[in-house]
C-alpha cells in the first residue's frame, strides 16, 4: 500500500476502554490516518449484530476525545461494533477504511465461541465489505483483579501492522495475546487453528420462570494441540486467519426432496 492506510479503530468494550486507546495510539504513531468509532457503552457478545437504532431507526453519534490523542477523530456510537464497521465501510466516518482494527479486547477470543464476539464480529463485517481487518484480544482471564498489560498487545500489533497493510482486501486475522508484561523470543506468535472450545466457556442457567442468566466459567481438561486455545495457554500469541460465510461444499449439490 503506497500511501498511508485509512484505519478505523473499534471495539466491543466501549469508547472508554483503555485497550481501544492503546490500539488507536499504535495506529496513529505509525502515521496511519486513524479514526476511532466505538460503542458508547459495552457491547460484548454482540457478534456481527446490527442492532443499533431506537424506534425512529436513527443512531446517535457523539464526538469524543481520547486520552493523549487530541489529533485523532473519535466518536461514541449508540450501536454495536458490527454496525459501526458496516457504517465505516459505507463512508460513515469519512472515506471508507483500508484497514479495520478491532480491540484491544479485555479477554481472549478463541475457539468456536468467537462466533459470538463483538470484537471478531466487527472484523468479519469489515472483511466481507472489502477491508483488511485485525481483531486483537488480551488474555486477561476472569479475575477482575488481573492487571491488563495493554502495551504488550499494542507492541505486537505495531510489529504486525505492515503485514496487515499488505493483506489482500477482505482478509481477516484474529490475534490473541498472553497477558504478560513482555513477550520473550521463546514465545513468538504462532499460527493457530480454531479450537472446539477454550478455557473459558459460556454458561446459560435458567434461574427462574422469567429469568435466564448468562455467565462464564473456567473449565479444566486437555486442549487440542495446535489450536488457538492451547497455544495461548502455553504462552504464545496466536494468529488465526478467518474466512467469512461461505458455502458448505459437503452439502451443496446433494439432491433435495421435491414433491
TrEMBL record:
Enzyme class, UniProt record, top EC level: hydrolase
Superkingdom of source: Bacteria
GO MF term set: 5'-nucleotidase activity; metal ion binding
Protein name as annotated: 5'-nucleotidase
InterPro entries: SurE, SurE-like_Pase/nucleotidase, SurE-like_sf
Keyword Glycoprotein: no
Positions of the Survival protein SurE-like phosphatase/nucleotidase domain: 7-182
Annotated catalysed reactions: a ribonucleoside 5'-phosphate + H2O = a ribonucleoside + phosphate
UniProt family annotation: Belongs to the SurE nucleotidase family.
Pfam families named in the record: SurE
Enzyme nomenclature, EC number: 3.1.3.5
Alphabetized Gene3D superfamilies for the sequence: Survival protein SurE-like phosphatase/nucleotidase
Record keyword Metal-binding present: yes
Keywords: Hydrolase, Metal-binding
Signal sequence coordinates: none
Amino acid at each position: 500500500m503506497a500511501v498511508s492506510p485509512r484505519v478505523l479503530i473499534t471495539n466491543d468494550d466501549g469508547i472508554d476502554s483503555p485497550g481501544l486507546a492503546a490500539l488507536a495510539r499504535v495506529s496513529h504513531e505509525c502515521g496511519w490516518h486513524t479514526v476511532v468509532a466505538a460503542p458508547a457503552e459495552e457491547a460484548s457478545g454482540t457478534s456481527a449484530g446490527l442492532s443499533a437504532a431506537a424506534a425512529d431507526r436513527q443512531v446517535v453519534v457523539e464526538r469524543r476525545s481520547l486520552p493523549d490523542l487530541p489529533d485523532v477523530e473519535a466518536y461514541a456510537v449508540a450501536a454495536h461494533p458490527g454496525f459501526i464497521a458496516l457504517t465505516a465501510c459505507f463512508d460513515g466516518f469519512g472515506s471508507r477504511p483500508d484497514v479495520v482494527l478491532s480491540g484491544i479486547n479485555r479477554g481472549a477470543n478463541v475457539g468456536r465461541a468467537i462466533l459470538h464476539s463483538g470484537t471478531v464480529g466487527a472484523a468479519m463485517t469489515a472483511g466481507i465489505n472489502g477491508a483488511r481487518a485485525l481483531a486483537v484480544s488480551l488474555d486477561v482471564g476472569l479475575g477482575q483483579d488481573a492487571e491488563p498489560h495493554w502495551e504488550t498487545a499494542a507492541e505486537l500489533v505495531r510489529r504486525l501492522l505492515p503485514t496487515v497493510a499488505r493483506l489482500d482486501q477482505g482478509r481477516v486475522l484474529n490475534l490473541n495475546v498472553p497477558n504478560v508484561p513482555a513477550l520473550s523470543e521463546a514465545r513468538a506468535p504462532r499460527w493457530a487453528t480454531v479450537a472446539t472450545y477454550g478455557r473459558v466457556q459460556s454458561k446459560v442457567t435458567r434461574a427462574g420462570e422469567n429469568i435466564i442468566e448468562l455467565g462464564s466459567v473456567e473449565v479444566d481438561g486437555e486442549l487440542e494441540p495446535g489450536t488457538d486455545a492451547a497455544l495461548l495457554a502455553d504462552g504464545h500469541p496466536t494468529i488465526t486467519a478467518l474466512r467469512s460465510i461461505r458455502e458448505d461444499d459437503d452439502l451443496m449439490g446433494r439432491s433435495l426432496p421435491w414433491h
